[in-house]
Specification:
390 residues; mainly beta; six-stranded mixed β-sheet; 11% helix; globular
């Protein structure tokens, strides 16, 4: 359930259960520490003995993990949302196994994980505990291979300082007769700082000389910790052999989110607390021709009972950051939605001349519309803060 600063407000995640069968079913979620029967008030519960039992008792007593509802019933085709909450009361790594039991059916195990750290901790957002970048396969002899992105995400509560050392690429070039098989091609600077919730994007050019798998490890320093390897992997193949017909490596197969089982670009889980809703959360721009313009449509809906101010944030794809070969924009970039109102937004991408493969996030922020008095008060506070800072 992620990494959060100790003492922050709880973080909630929503999971949707659906009954795809032809019969009604009853389900329940429980941990093996939960008693099967309600104890009388005169019964003294067993005290935890081992360290693992003490940690689970602390998690349950302090409601580090909470969920609701704990049980329910589903008719055929019916769905129900379950809210999981992580409450980081103090620093530590927490784990709690849960069991999803279907009456007269299967029992599945779920593992809840969460980590609470100090507010000053500098941590990247990692997958399976390591930093790696799997480059798309490139045919031999390709004169204009596409730029490919590696995204370093700040997963901690404080700005993340980083430094990426690309000197091992020189050794890789020496091993390949002086040819730059993998080359850093710009994007974010090699040394810098990633703000909270932001990313740094590095572009790479991959031009293989042989039909094989290339690997290189680049030292990546994150915060005060010792450097750890950033693993770059890329596969070259013969031009006659189409990459879709070749057997992909497990790492390459994991990159194709279109092939994930049960994947859908449309929003299927909408938390009740989300006041601004969007019809789809993943937008596929497809293959864009050089110097062309591609457009996609999104629909925003105000699910609140008050007017909402919204604004789009292109994040890493702001034009001044020069991360992508092209220009991205959203129209309208900001506005006001009345309760229940739907608004169509147009996402446009004007591609550049250099080919590129990229994926990332843009954000839409919303808040209740402010009255003129609230705007004047906020401006006065900002002026006072600026005057104090000077």
């Amino acid at each position: 359930m992620g990494v959060v600063a100790a003492g922050q407000v709880p973080r909630s995640f929503w999971v949707q259960f659906s009954n795809n069968g032809a019969l009604p079913l009853a389900w329940e979620l429980h941990s093996y520490d939960a008693p099967q029967v309600e104890l009388e008030n005169w019964v003294e519960p067993a005290r935890p003995l081992t360290q693992a039992e003490k940690e689970r008792a602390f998690i349950i007593d302090n409601k580090i993990f909470d969920l609701h509802p704990h049980s329910g019933s589903l008719q055929p085709g019916q769905t129900e949302q379950v809210c999981f909450t992580f409450n980081p009361v103090r620093e530590g790594t927490y784990q709690l196994p849960l069991f999803l039991r279907v009456k007269d059916g299967k029992q599945l195990q779920l593992q809840l994980n969460g980590r609470a750290v100090a507010a000053s901790a500098q941590l990247p957002l990692t997958v399976r505990g390591s930093q790696s970048c799997v480059l798309a396969p490139v045919p031999l002899g390709e004169l204009e291979p596409p730029l490919q992105c590696y995204t370093l995400r700040n997963g901690g509560p404080a700005p993340l300082q980083y430094r990426l050392d690309i000197t091992p690429l020189q050794q890789l070039a020496k091993q390949n007769y002086g040819a730059e098989v993998i080359k850093y091609a710009g994007g974010s600077p090699l040394t810098g700082e990633v703000p909270v919730g932001d990313v740094a994007v590095f572009n790479w050019l991959f031009q293989p000389l042989e039909a094989k798998l290339y690997r290189i490890a680049l030292p990546l320093s994150l915060g005060p910790a010792a450097p750890q390897p950033l693993l770059l992997r890329g596969r070259g193949y013969h031009p006659v052999q189409h990459p879709e017909e070749a057997q992909p490596t497990p790492e390459e197969a994991a990159q194709r989110w279109q092939d994930w089982l049960g994947f859908s670009a449309a929003s299927t889980v909408t938390p009740p607390s989300r006041v601004l809703r969007i019809n789809q959360e993943i937008l596929d721009l497809g293959v864009c021709l050089p110097a062309s313009k591609t457009k996609r449509l999104l629909v925003l809906q105000n699910a609140a009972g008050v007017n909402l101010e919204f604004v789009w944030d292109l994040a890493a794809y702001e034009e001044e950051r020069r991360v992508i070969s092209g220009r991205m924009s959203v129209t309208p970039a900001a506005g006001i939605l009345e309760p229940g109102e739907n608004l169509v937004c147009q996402v446009s991408f004007e591609s550049g001349l250099a080919p590129q493969i990229f994926s990332g996030e843009i954000f839409c922020y919303a808040r209740p519309e402010q009255t003129p008095e609230e705007v004047a008060h906020e401006e006065a506070m900002l002026k006072g803060t600026a005057g104090y800072a000077s």
